[in-house]
Design goal:
heterodimer, A: 186 residues, alpha+beta, 2 domains, four-stranded antiparallel beta sheet, B: alpha+beta, Alpha-Beta Plaits
Chain lengths: 186, 199
């Protein structure tokens, strides 16, 4: 082996090293391209999942359009009484407005369905004795102006005199406070 | 005079090679080396830029994936809201269906009474479990079966049908009638929901 051989070998070695370097770079490129391809596939998957979810939402929206419309119609009425005091004031206001003779009135807050849309109700037990027409008109006005109230018990009997009737009512008023957090609309 | 062709200054004598020359084929080694240098630099530069390009594209795809994921989660939230609204609508529907006005029923019964008949007591009580069912208790005098038929017909006209009826007749033309009234015009929950006080 002489220095010419060594020179030749050194060049050959350099050629091999450059080949390795190029090969390593190519491998890096392939890895980068694979990673890009994986990201692209993941993006396709994400687009598919998002589209599926949006389709589901559109179908759900179409299927529930009636019930949501119904809710929009009724919710203002159901939410008329924000708290028991407000409900009580509403009934008292109606009674005073009509000037109907009230024999007794008892209010009580009752748990309705825990975790439900209507968690509590205000139960009002009212006894009136007044003119037949006046009393029944008052009831009609009450049910008309507060359509979400539920008259759970209505007992009518003859009054003390003439055209009077005695009306015993048990009324349930839904209580939905704003803290119940069901105000979100789609 | 003859010319001296040999340069005068070249006093160095011809020398024999110290080492043997390499085979001629190995002339390719430096040529290959040069080509390799150029090719390696060019290819590595090309790969470098391609790698950068791929990395940029990967970052862009990832950002797009994040956007899609966030849009998907927004859609999921919206679906939850819709489901929640639907559930609330059903709860409200159940409440409203069990809150139909009783006044028209009371007035209907009262108006159905003939001239001779009179109501002693009328009670309308909602069932606690099924509030759309109303237990009616009607106590009236005079008129008998004819009056009762007329009252039941008035009740039917209001959209209620009487079930589990129980009727007793007492002295002095007193009739005590009890039944469960069920609303007949129950409409499909999801199609034609309407305000009951507008009907």
């Amino acid at each position: 082996m002489n220095n010419k051989h060594f020179g030749c070998m050194a060049l050959g070695l350099f050629i091999i090293l450059m080949g390795h370097w190029t090969n390593a770079s190519y491998k890096k490129l392939r890895l980068a391209r694979d990673a890009e391809e994986i990201s692209r596939s993941a993006f396709d998957g994400a687009v598919f999942a998002r589209s599926a979810e949006q389709r589901k939402m559109v179908i759900l929206k179409n299927n529930t359009i009636g019930s949501r419309k119904y809710l929009n119609q009724w919710e203002p009425y159901v939410k008329q009484a924000k708290n028991p005091q407000y409900g009580e004031a509403l009934i008292n206001f109606r009674i005073k407005q009509a000037g109907i003779i009230t024999l007794s009135q008892v209010y009580e807050t009752v748990d309705h369905v825990k975790g439900g849309t209507i968690p509590k109700t205000l139960n009002a037990k009212l006894v009136f004795e007044d003119d037949y027409v006046k009393t029944l008109n008052w009831l009609a006005n009450l049910e008309g102006s507060l359509p979400a109230i539920r008259v759970s018990n209505c007992k009518l009997s003859k009054g003390q005199s003439g055209n009077d009737i005695k009306m015993e009512l048990s009324i349930d008023i839904p209580i939905i406070s704003s803290e119940d957090g069901n105000d979100t609309k789609t | 005079m003859s010319m001296i062709t040999e340069p005068f200054h070249d006093i160095k004598t011809e020398r024999q090679d110290i080492t043997k020359p390499l085979p001629r084929i190995l002339i390719l080694v430096p040529v290959l080396f040069c080509i390799s240098c150029v090719a390696a630099i060019a290819l590595n530069l090309l790969f470098f830029f391609k790698i950068k390009e791929s990395e940029t594209a990967k970052v862009q795809w990832k950002s797009k994936i994040e956007q899609e994921t966030s849009r998907k989660s927004e859609t999921e939230k919206e679906i939850e809201l819709i489901k929640n609204e639907d559930r609330r609508a059903k709860d409200v529907f159940d409440w409203v269906e069990g809150s139909r006005q009783l006044q028209p029923l009371a007035v209907g019964v009262a108006r159905s009474m003939g001239v001779k008949s009179s109501i002693e007591e009328l009670s309308l009580v909602r069932d606690i479990e099924n509030p759309h069912q109303i237990r009616i208790g009607l106590d009236f005098v005079n008129g008998g079966q004819e009056q009762l038929d007329s009252t039941l017909s008035a009740i039917n006209e209001l959209g209620y049908r009487a079930y589990s009826a129980n009727q007793t007749s007492g002295q002095g033309g007193q009739v005590d009638y009890q039944a469960t009234l069920i609303w007949q015009k129950i409409i499909n929950k999801n199609n034609n929901l309407s305000l009951n006080h507008n009907e």
